[in-house]
From TrEMBL:
Protein's name in the database: Fe2OG dioxygenase domain-containing protein
Record's signal peptide: none
UniProt cross-references to InterPro entries, sorted A to Z: DIOX_N (IPR026992), IPNS-like_FE2OG_OXY (IPR044861), IPNS-like_sf (IPR027443), Iron_ascorbate_oxido_reductase (IPR050231), Oxoglu/Fe-dep_dioxygenase_dom (IPR005123)
Originating species: Phascolomyces articulosus
Tree of life domain: Eukaryota
Example GO molecular function: oxidoreductase activity
Keywords: Iron, Metal-binding, Oxidoreductase
SUPFAM superfamilies linked: Clavaminate synthase-like
Amino acid sequence: MTNATVFPVIDFSEIENRSAEIAHQILEACKTVGFFYITNHNGPTTSEFTQMFEMVKTFFAQPAEFKTQFETDQLDCRGGYTAITPKYDMNNMVTQAKTVRFEGFEVSPRDLSNQKLPNMFTDNKKELDLFFKKMHSVGISVLELLAIALKVTPNQETGANDYLSSYHRYGDEASSATSLVRFMNYPALKENDSSGNNIEEEVVCGAHTDYGSITLLSHRDIGGLQVDIDGVWTDVPKVQDALLVNLGGTLMHWTRGLLKASNHRVIATPKETKNRYVITYFMQPETDVKLADIPSPLLPSIVPNLDGIPTLNKIVSAEDYIKERFIKAYKWEKKEVSSVE
């Protein structure tokens, strides 16, 4: 099986006329690995992605004293900057790398008008909002196609396949919206460590599954993302002008494990001489949504103990589910650290 088969590229062109075909392709990808690329979508254009990446690069190129003005104060904070050397001990994250070797900046579409942002973001706030809305629109399309594939009865009043998408309103449409955007910078890896030893590769973001429903990711020219497939770390290929989609734990829970959220990680090697910049849109249900079984005839009759979290066998709110994941991952502890190995 080739990487192209494991990580299919799904063409969204003529989606109105090909919805059943595309929905089937998405379902097959989500039942196996839960990662796939999409092209010809209704999201940001190539030029809009280029503009956004330039903005992101400009921010991360600033000195530390500038970036730390926007530092997030706690692990569960929505929005803000996270340095490569974290303010709080990230070693409590059970499946996370011992050292987190990337810096990030999170923006909440819900709080875009109020969040403290650097000037390169505030000067382009309209462009940011439009970019976020277009990313959200792609996510809505994926969720509607999944509803078709899962044979969920359409909305009786409108005929829309909105069972899933109706629980994921955009930030300015719902006070309970929780979706967020994360910009990330993985600095290029040096050939030798502090002791002069050669470095072949290093895990810069440890194995984990995402918490929300779906994640939309653009990583442009630099690879490094790997997915655990039957115990083998498999490289996710780079696909030009395509948007990578992967499933999170919420949808795995919602479908009794029919849809798969796979462990993934990021590695860096000295052969990649440039920084790896990533734009990620984490699409999450609104906080008060109850994660009862999706009304699909395809769901398995036996509920597996997914992720080892007992609440997955119960009906919980999206907020409680995501909080449970945080508790399991971070143990909800904040320990000051003086240095990172």
